[in-house]
Structure to design on (761 residues):
């Protein structure tokens, strides 16, 4: 019963142990679904389920019939044109990261967008090339191209070998893209898209920042127009930097000046677009403007002939016929492909989640995997490379008023026009301009270095994950760096659960609230009672740490106390059997003052016997272990009589930890310390019962609903125990010594004062 009084309340209910609560409240018989039940549901069929499956596989079928033509079409057209222009330029620029001719970037921009239109669930992201994925595909391509016959290992091969090498690189990039798409499609069909949760926000941020550094370094050879050998082993980024700066005197000044001007202009106007995004009807298409101007200047002044600059070159109109992937490439790049699939999905899903929350529509992670996978398969078949979504491109599509993926369709049409009709106009464009455009899109990722300060203030572990991921990725490369970063992140989780921040609780304000006693002033701790809280799962790796923290909290080792008491008991029993310790109605008389050393040696040789429960049933008296013992036998004294373990934050135990926990409880119980476990849920208790955790020593009666229930139970139990004494019993002359939980060398009716009397014969 709860009675509110203003901002206070009074609760009147019985003190509940788990057993008492289950006696008073009948539980429902719940049927937990088995694996076979889930299989039956999965393979069942009905018209409603068939319709739901079709709509989930083809999301366009659900939103296209509800399309508001008059309200949304104009916004989608404007957004699509703006996004399409950006897609063309980013496709050309990001192809350089894959180390293939720029024209193939247009295929990646076109096919990814078309496939996502039919299968994607986000209404606002722009599918297509992403610089980090392009860099990852390029890393795999460079590694395999090193074994290509005639490859000199430099970026400028002879004319006779250049064409065949480019064809081989295109084939490798396409094969990598297809396999990445197959992995994504398989994960989506099997409904295990949850694997992306192992890529935390800190890890993705650190990885993309390090990848942006790789992109920056990889574009230096185009900006300076230098011959830089391809590198793909760990620490390759430092070798590339050494190669660039060792031949810096060979820089093509025209390319360098052009790239710096383009980078400066793009950065300024991007900042203007960001600051005045609320006032501008559409962002200024600075990439398009700069590209048009740079192409015209390069063509008009014939930069290729006069200054020997590197240009885009021949762009064949139309599409090339589809090609089959090379299975041999699959075998060499399976690790790279899995990393590409995971990173691509993680980036796309995180961006899509932002817009789905902003515009309030559902997002299906598994369907996103299917959409991205199919897009990569088709894109790879037509010689494109892996895509996801670029943050800047998606921001353009959303900020310019895009309502649905019709904007994506318009952008794909813009790319198609360039592929089929006007691609030749971009042939005089300098590659250094494309490199500058690629670097201009990295500002947001490079600015993520500021995350270090924010994460350090909020969570040291997340900050460490960010820094280590960034360092691993920069030093080891994208593939190995990602694998090592995921392993390190999981290691931090293990570390946090292996060394949890356990605490000792106390009552605050004489209420039913219990907090860490180190955090507050007005704390009340019941005498002889310790409340210990563990805030993490208990399993094989941290059961030893849990045990040590518990020992530190109570101030003694129960196993050591148990062994000391058993040793003392053996000595007392031996004295009593030999008649050296005599019991009288008025007290006890000890007729010896020393113990032979052989007795101690005998105890040490039987150490396992000392771990057994203390049995005093054969003695005519009870031993108070906190009182003085015969012959000054030393046993550590303890004031603790009750221990409460708060397991409200313990989500599970494994078999090893259950065995260790039971051993700990038995040690406390055997030294007459009552142990209570509070806050566990029914599933936890069911698991304990299933593993036969409870027996005649560790009973189910130790389970209580809350800390306060256990504390009140202890208080009532101790009050009842101290009120059991009846003075009238003192007149009874019968001497019958037995165990009394209040301790002492006592008889049942009254306490007998112990004294040593030495009799020499």
């Amino acid at each position: 019963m709860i009675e509110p009084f203003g901002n206070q309340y009074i609760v009147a209910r019985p003190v509940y142990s788990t057993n008492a609560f289950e006696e008073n409240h009948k539980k429902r018989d719940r049927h937990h679904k088995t694996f076979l039940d889930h299989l039956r549901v999965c393979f069942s069929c009905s018209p409603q389920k068939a319709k739901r499956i079709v709509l989930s596989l083809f999301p366009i079928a659900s939103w296209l019939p509800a399309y508001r033509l008059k309200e949304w079409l104009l916004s989608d057209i404007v957004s699509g044109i703006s996004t399409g222009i950006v897609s063309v330029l980013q496709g050309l620029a990001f192809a350089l990261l894959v180390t293939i001719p720029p024209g193939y970037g247009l295929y990646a921009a076109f096919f990814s967008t078309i496939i996502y239109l039919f299968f994607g669930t986000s209404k606002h992201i722009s599918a297509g090339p992403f610089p980090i994925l392009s860099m990852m595909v390029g890393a795999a391509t460079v590694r395999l191209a090193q074994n290509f016959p005639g490859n000199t290992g430099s970026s400028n091969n002879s004319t006779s070998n250049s064409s065949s090498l480019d064809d081989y690189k295109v084939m490798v990039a396409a094969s990598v893209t297809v396999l990445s798409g197959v992995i994504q499609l398989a994960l989506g069909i099997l409904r295990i898209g949850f694997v992306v949760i192992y890529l935390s926000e800190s890890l993705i941020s650190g990885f993309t920042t390090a990848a942006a550094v790789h992109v920056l370094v990889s574009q230096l050879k185009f900006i300076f127009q230098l011959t830089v050998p391809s590198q793909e082993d760990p620490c390759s980024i430092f070798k590339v930097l050494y190669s660039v700066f060792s031949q810096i005197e060979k820089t093509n000044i025209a390319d360098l000046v052009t790239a710096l001007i383009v980078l400066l202009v793009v950065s300024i106007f991007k900042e203007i677009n960001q600051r005045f995004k609320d006032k501008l009807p559409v962002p200024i298409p600075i990439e398009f403007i700069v590209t048009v101007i740079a192409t015209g200047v390069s063509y008009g002044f014939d930069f290729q002939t006069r200054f020997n600059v590197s240009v885009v070159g021949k762009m064949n109109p139309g599409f090339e016929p589809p090609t089959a992937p090379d299975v041999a490439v699959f075998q060499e790049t399976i690790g790279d492909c899995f990393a590409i699939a995971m990173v691509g999905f993680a980036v796309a899903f995180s961006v899509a989640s932002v817009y789905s929350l902003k515009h309030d529509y559902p997002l299906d992670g598994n369907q996103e995997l299917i959409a991205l996978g199919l897009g990569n398969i088709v894109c790879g078949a037509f010689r494109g490379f892996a895509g996801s979504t670029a943050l800047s491109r998606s921001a353009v599509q959303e900020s310019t008023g895009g309502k649905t993926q019709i904007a994506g369709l318009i952008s794909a049409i813009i790319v198609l026009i360039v592929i089929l009709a006007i691609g030749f106009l971009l042939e005089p464009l300098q590659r250094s301009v494309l490199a500058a455009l690629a670097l201009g899109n990295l500002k947001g990722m490079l600015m993520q270095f500021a995350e270090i300060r924010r994460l350090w203030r909020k969570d040291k572990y997340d900050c460490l994950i960010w820094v280590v991921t960034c360092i691993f990725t920069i030093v080891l490369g994208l593939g190995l760096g990602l694998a090592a970063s995921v392993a390190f992140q999981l290691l931090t989780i293990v570390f946090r659960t292996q060394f949890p921040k356990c605490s000792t609780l106390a009552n605050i304000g004489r209420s039913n609230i219990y907090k860490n006693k180190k955090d507050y002033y007005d704390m009340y701790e019941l005498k002889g009672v310790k409340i210990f809280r563990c805030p993490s799962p208990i399993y094989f790796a941290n059961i030893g740490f849990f045990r040590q923290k518990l020992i530190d909290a109570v101030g003694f080792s129960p196993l050591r106390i148990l062994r000391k008491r058993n040793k003392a008991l053996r000595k007392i029993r031996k004295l009593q059997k030999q008649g050296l310790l005599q019991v009288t109605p008025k007290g006890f008389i000890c007729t010896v003052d020393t113990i032979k050393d052989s007795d101690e040696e005998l105890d040490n040789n039987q150490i396992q016997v000392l771990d057994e429960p203390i049995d005093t049933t054969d003695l005519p008296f009870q031993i108070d272990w906190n009182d003085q013992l015969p012959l000054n036998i030393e046993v550590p004294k303890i004031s603790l009589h009750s221990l409460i373990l708060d397991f409200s934050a313990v989500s599970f135990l494994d078999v090893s930890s259950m065995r260790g926990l039971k051993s700990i409880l038995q040690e406390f119980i055997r030294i007459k310390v009552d142990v209570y476990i509070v806050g566990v849920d029914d599933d936890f208790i069911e698991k304990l019962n299933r593993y036969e955790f409870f027996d005649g020593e560790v009973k189910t009666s130790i389970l209580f609903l809350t800390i306060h229930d256990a504390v009140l139970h202890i208080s009532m139990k101790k009050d009842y125990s101290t009120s059991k004494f009846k003075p009238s019993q003192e007149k009874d002359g019968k001497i019958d010594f037995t165990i009394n939980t209040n301790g002492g060398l006592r008889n049942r009716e009254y306490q007998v004062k112990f004294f040593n009397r030495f009799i020499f014969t």
